Amino acid sequence: MCGLLTYVSAAGAARAHANGMSEALESIHHRGPDETVVRVEGDDVVMGFKRLSIIDVEHSHQPLSYADGRYTITFNGEIYNYLELRAELAAEGAVFATEGDTEVIVAAYHQWGPAAVRRLRGMFAFVIWDRQDRVAFGARDPFGIKPLFHLVTEHGVFFASEKKALLPFATSGDTTINQASLAHYMTLQYVPEPGTLHRDIGRIGSGECFTYRPGGDGLAIRRYWRAEFRPTPQDHPEELYRRIREVLRESVRIHMRSDVPVGAFLSSGIDSTAVVALAREVNPRILTFTAALEVDGYSELPVAQESARHLGVTMHPISVTAQMMMDALPRIVWHLDEPVADPALIPLYYVARKASEHVTVALSGEGSDEFFAGYRVYREPLSLRPVSGLPAPMQRGLRAVSKAIPQGMKGKSFLERGTTPIEERYYGNARMYTEQEKATLLRQYDSSVQYTDVTAPIYAEAAHLGDVEKMQYIDVYTWLRGDILVKADRMSMANSLEVRVPFLDYNVFDVASTIPTDLKLPPRSADTKYALRRAMEGVVPPEIVNRVKLGFPTPIRVWLRGEMYEWATHVLDTSKAGHLIDLGYVRRLLHEHKRGAADYSRKIWTVLVFCLWYAIFVEGTIDPRPAPVASQLLSKPVVS
């Protein structure tokens, strides 16, 4: 895995940014500690690159040139079908100077043009400069596994793997905070794409590509792929289960292509256990890693250890304490770029650090819940059907009845939810502050900014689907790429570890998208991911097949009443973000939480993470950056 920073000048003044690019590139040193290169491509482009060597370690240096220097590419990611594409391109006359996947991308672009991006099977974010046609072309993978930020200025456009590398070139200061993004963060616990908390900086979306011509009409972004759920009735479910099993087996196999050691994360659930079981077929000696939180009801270690014993693989556990969470959180927020208030970040950070001591690549189970319907909330449309399936006039009557029922009385919530359309009821897995609460919390609350601004366009694309598939679609384009994949990328890259996610694969999705609702969530069962569980019978330990996944749970509910209370109070008391957030309101929530009046831990955590983000990226009062090491000495830009 790697980090890129590329600048395309609008008026042929790229050379003036070469030294600044070299300095900015060091902020993402952790993404590629093996090699640093900054190259000036004439007057138009500066390309900076940090390499973590995975494939063709001795060659495939970047920026990489192709076709006698016509093209130059910077690329972050892995193309898992690069060997097959290479053979196909060679048969069409392509000539290769390396054995890696980077050259395959640029050769495919030379041969097939922008259509090449749809042929790439993997995780990627890249920028190609075509010196002959004076155009930059780039893309991000279909599911948003790898990040790509952009900053458009009057002088040109910058692209980077992490936002922090763009900040030196952006307008600085508190006035640049995007208030709509802040409002969405307080609802969702992450900043939804394509925006960021910095008004001037955006993101290339998952499944999008772009072009930019110096002196042209600006950055042109278009979508090249969209997830299409197409549930199909199955006369022979066993054949579907076989197809799921085989497509996952093949995906894990190609995800293990590497010239460096590959390990895997292992938790208590079926997702990671399935990945490890299939990976073991390729490498019986694969190493596994898990995090343990020594609070009753929160540790996945005992079940993960039992799975490791059953599969015959070695496990390396790491215990995470409240003090470790407090110590690591500022560094973690710096690595995130954008605040993400998911407490699972911390154990993931530590398990990635443990894995990096032994391997360079680790497999993980992200994406399974969204593809195979693994979240329990997906059962809600089925449970609400007795009400939601009634004619509209009857629903309106029941809605009126629900308003007359006293708050807290049994049945009120059921009637309210059952008479509320899915488009208004569901906006993803995380639900922090309501609009009414945000009116108190946010100093600059704008009632015209609603969470539906994020979800409405996504629901419009899924209008033809049933409610369960609509929820899956919403999560693919919000929760998955806004929370799950951000934490996987940043926490692994913080430790110079590459994480690969075999579930998030074109071929796997093609099969998963056809599963009918009744085989994802059987009406007479409490199971989720039913089809996946049936497919994995005989592959994973029997006790795991039907076990509910914990998913790196963290006991902040417990710790904010104990070990973390004074720390949280200090963060709130010293924050300079009081003109944006009513910190007194949050202190009252913390006090009420401590005395056990209610569980406000997630709401409090959401604000704590933002306060740390503000202190790091706006106030500058906290500097958690790692100390420079010898390998981070600035490289002199290469002119070509």
From TrEMBL:
Q: Does the keyword Amino-acid biosynthesis apply?
A: yes
Pathway assignment reads: Amino-acid biosynthesis; L-asparagine biosynthesis; L-asparagine from L-aspartate (L-Gln route): step 1/1
What the entry lists under InterPro entries is as follows: Asn_synth_AEB, Asn_synthase, ASN_synthetase/amidase, AsnB_N, GATase_2_dom, Ntn_hydrolases_N, Ppantetheine_attach_site, Rossmann-like_a/b/a_fold
The broad enzyme category this protein falls into is ligase
Instruction: Identify the residues that the record assigns to the Glutamine amidotransferase type-2 domain, covering every copy.
Output: 2-215
Enzyme Commission number(s):
6.3.5.4
Indicate yes or no for the key word Nucleotide-binding: yes
Q: What Pfam families is this protein classified in?
A: Asn_synthase, GATase_7
Q: Which reaction does it catalyse?
A: L-aspartate + L-glutamine + ATP + H2O = L-asparagine + L-glutamate + AMP + diphosphate + H(+)
What are the protein's UniProt keywords?
Answer: Amino-acid biosynthesis, Asparagine biosynthesis, ATP-binding, Glutamine amidotransferase, Nucleotide-binding
Family the UniProt entry places it in = Belongs to the asparagine synthetase family.
Name listed for the protein in its UniProt record: asparagine synthase (glutamine-hydrolyzing)
Record the organism: Kibdelosporangium persicum
